[in-house]
Write a structure and sequence with these properties.
Length: 253
């Protein structure tokens, strides 16, 4: 086992996932090191979203193991997985458009039954990360801009401390200025609050975002992880970028 896997909070070992008649994941091996951001990269259809959904139990692993801190979780129902302090931000964000920003956050706080029971210090921290949420506190979430909805989706996942945060393409379709703001917020989440860092597994198509946020990286192709290592090493190797992703970072600067 590699040193990265030895220090991993999350590990996938030989994971296969079928969706109906389709065999999507073909023996995925993946390690997300504790306290780090691991970028999950690859072309469209490589299996990245299926990997996140398999970790959450939304789609079941037909073979292999999903381990959190060494504990197999692949057979647990999704609500039990979430109670292990794992949060998932899907590509469609999954917010409730008819509810206010406040109601969306309260709904995600399993330990709070009312606004008074929310951790106010943590809420202030989230407002510092995403100031628009304070401004639109009583605003229907469905009327927020795309960037504001993405901020709400991430804040909702972080309204309580999480050991592991799974995020699927948070910058997709956003304007460059909003992407920069989101990168800054995710960097702050990466640094952690009160010294408690959250482990993040993040799917992203924007290589510049991946370079800015990633500590580790795994590249998928055809339902398998075909490369795993440090993000800085991939960012510094144009030939490897071209071979794995069909792009060169230098061409995007």
């Amino acid at each position: 086992m590699s040193p990265a896997a030895d220090r991993a909070l999350l590990r996938l070992e030989g994971v296969h996932t079928h969706i109906g008649a389709y065999h999507i994941l073909h023996g995925v091996d993946l390690a997300a090191r504790e306290g780090e951001v691991t970028m999950l990269l690859g072309r469209n259809g490589a299996g990245k979203t299926t990997t996140l959904r398999t970790v959450m139990g939304l789609w079941r692993a037909g073979a292999g193991r999903v381990l959190l801190d060494g504990r197999p979780i692949q057979a647990l129902p999704t609500p039990e997985i979430a109670r292990l302090d794992i949060a998932y931000v899907p590509e469609n964000m999954g917010i409730f458009g008819d509810l206010t920003v406040r109601e969306n956050l309260l709904l995600a706080a399993r330990r709070a039954r009312s606004l008074d029971e929310l951790d106010t210090a943590r809420l202030d921290w989230l407002f510092d990360l995403f100031p628009a949420l304070r401004k639109f506190w009583l605003y229907p979430a469905g009327k927020l801009s795309g960037g504001q909805k993405q901020m709400l989706a991430i804040a909702r996942a972080m309204v309580e401390p999480r050991r592991l945060l799974l995020i699927d393409e948070p910058t997709k379709g956003l304007a460059p200025a909003i992407i920069r703001n989101l990168i800054e917020a995710l960097q702050e989440i990466k640094r952690g609050r009160d010294g408690a860092r959250t482990t993040v597994l993040l799917v992203e198509q924007n290589f510049m975002v991946a370079q800015a946020l990633g500590d580790g990286v795994a590249v998928m192709d055809d339902g398998r992880v075909v490369h795993a290592g440090r993000m800085a090493d991939l960012a510094g190797d144009e030939a490897l970028q071209q071979r794995l992703l069909g792009l060169s970072l230098a061409a995007h600067q």
